[in-house]
Specification:
Layout: E1 3-10, H1 17-31, E2 36-43, H2 44-50, H3 54-70, E3 79-82, H4 88-97, H5 102-106, H6 109-121, H7 131-145, E4 151-153, H8 159-176, E5 185-187, H9 217-226, H10 245-252, H11 256-267, H12 272-298, H13 301-330, H14 340-352, E6 355-360, E7 366-371, E8 377-381, H15 387-399, H16 402-405, E9 406-409, E10 412-417, E11 420-424, H17 433-448
Parallel strand pairs: 1-2, 2-3, 4-5
Antiparallel strand pairs: 6-7, 7-8, 8-11, 9-10, 10-11
Helix pairs in contact: 2-7, 3-12, 4-7, 4-13, 7-8, 9-12, 10-12
The structure holds tryptophan (TRP).
Length: 450
């Protein structure tokens, strides 16, 4: 089976060069690998948690979708959608909310950080904390387990959320008695570039030190690069390439040979001004074709909308049946299926269906028979001293693939578990072995559907 890789991008900002190198590029690359089914989505419900400016949210969804498509995401191959186009996600989020301990959410880093800041300020600990922020990890868990994702590539700040998603999924599985959800694993890419920003701290919108990816065009790219902080060494003086942000950024977009050549130039005294121009030329060469596609898409939002709608339809093909099953699991069921008449009828039908009957033989041993719907005896079990053992075998015969367990032998049909014939055709069974085999497997199959 393919590995499901899923990740979400909160739509509250404009993609910058750091997002591209650290998240977008590796994700798009991963989606092209064999054996991978990628699910990438715009986490626009999550955006509402941190941003109450509708224009910003709307703009960001467009910019982020256009960016991912422009850099080469193939929506035919990847399931690419908006969270808010999948109504099953908030629905699942509620089911998960009802099994999540409040104490677990109290420990979430994002929430705790707000509480700590409030405490330091001497205001109410929950000042400015919305239920959206508090329950953020539950919505994220719903995003992930809805599609039974195996691997979730995220930044280190999200590791705790993944642990919480596992906890919540496990709790649901346990409470409702079945592995409804796959437990997701966090995927932290060790060798992915974390880019320094203009001031050398991690490139981040919150530090206001970013280099734009596409917005503002070549001009904005060049202007930002010219503002990268360097040391005061003059042209002609050897530079410490390894220690410079400029080189770190260059290296993230270059082959080993290109990086080595640039490094040598710096060590030989290339001036910072020229080095910045070289970095700009290099990045512009890589980004210009993608930027052209980006602005083309931005000018045709209807095309993006169509792609996202198709992606939502693809995602809902999985989410709708999943949600149907989960509603059933928690007891939100169609009342018709529980009408008293129907239940009685179902019982009656059950009585008439294929069945096991257990009995004690004359020596006090425990045995069972498999009877066809018409009462014909199809199998007679061996003798067991312990009735529990007989019961366990009946359940296994019913639940395990019936075909594989049944064998036609010269003596007739036998049901084989772990290499032992636990039940065989009774003496004097009529008909040929193949016909008996078909009857017995039909009987078991009908029972396993109950
Ligand atoms: N919380 C993530 C972030 O801020 C975005 C996100 C939302 C996400 N749902 C997700 C990431 C599900 C991975 C899986 O980066």
């Amino acid at each position: 089976m393919n590995t499901r890789v899923l990740t979400g991008i909160t739509t509250s900002g404009t993609p910058h060069l750091g997002n591209y190198a650290g998240a977008i590029r590796p994700a798009v690359h991963a989606s092209t690998q064999p054996g991978v089914d990628a699910f990438f989505f715009l986490a626009d419900y999550h955006a509402l948690i941190k941003c109450d400016d509708p224009a910003r949210v709307a703009r960001s969804r467009l910019e982020i979708a256009a960016t991912w498509l422009a850099v080469g995401l193939d929506p035919e191959r990847v399931t690419f959608y908006r969270q808010s186009d999948i109504p099953e996600i908030p629905e699942l989020s509620w089911l998960l909310t009802c099994v999540t301990a409040k104490g677990l959410m109290n420990r979430a880093h994002a929430y705790k950080a707000s509480v700590d800041q409030n405490t330091a300020k001497g205001v109410d600990p929950d000042d400015g904390v919305t239920m959206g922020l508090f329950s953020y990890p539950i919505l994220m868990a719903a995003d992930i387990v809805m599609f039974n994702a195996n691997k979730v590539p995220v930044g280190r700040d999200q590791i705790q959320h993944l642990e919480m998603a596992r906890d919540i999924a496990q709790r649901f599985n346990h409470l409702y008695g079945r592995d409804y959800f796959t437990l997701p694993e966090v995927a932290i890419e060790e060798d992915v570039a974390t880019l320094p920003g203009l001031d050398g701290r991690k490139m981040s919108k919150s530090y206001n030190n970013t280099i734009p990816l596409f917005e503002g065009g070549a001009k904005a790219l060049r202007a930002a690069i010219m503002r990268i902080v360097t040391d005061s060494r003059e042209p002609g003086e050897p530079k410490d390439a390894e220690g410079s942000h400029l080189y770190t950024i260059y290296r993230a977009f270059a082959t080993q040979e290109q990086a080595a050549a640039f490094r040598k130039q710096l060590e030989e005294g290339l001036g910072w001004g020229e080095a910045k121009q070289a970095l700009y030329d290099h990045l512009e060469g890589l980004l210009a074709p993608m930027r052209e596609r980006y602005f083309d898409l931005m000018a045709n939002p209807g095309r993006i909308e169509d792609v996202l709608q198709a992606g939502a339809a693809k995602a809902r093909k999985l989410a709708v049946p999943m949600m149907r099953e989960l509603r059933e699991a928690v007891g939100l069921r169609n009342l018709n299926a529980q009408a008293p008449g129907k239940q009685a009828q179902a019982k009656k039908e059950k009585g008439k269906g294929a069945r096991f009957v257990s009995f004690r033989d004359e020596d006090g041993g425990f045995r069972f028979r498999l009877l066809a719907a018409d009462g014909e005896e199809l199998l007679l079990s061996q003798r067991f001293a312990d009735p529990k053992e007989a019961g366990a075998l009946m359940r296994r015969l019913q639940s395990e693939a019936p075909k594989a367990l049944l064998q036609a032998t010269a003596q007739g049909v036998a049901a084989v578990l772990d290499g032992v014939a636990v039940a065989t055709a009774p003496a004097g069974a009529q008909g040929d072995a193949q016909a008996q085999l078909a009857k017995a497997s039909e009987a078991l199959a009908s029972m396993s559907q109950e």
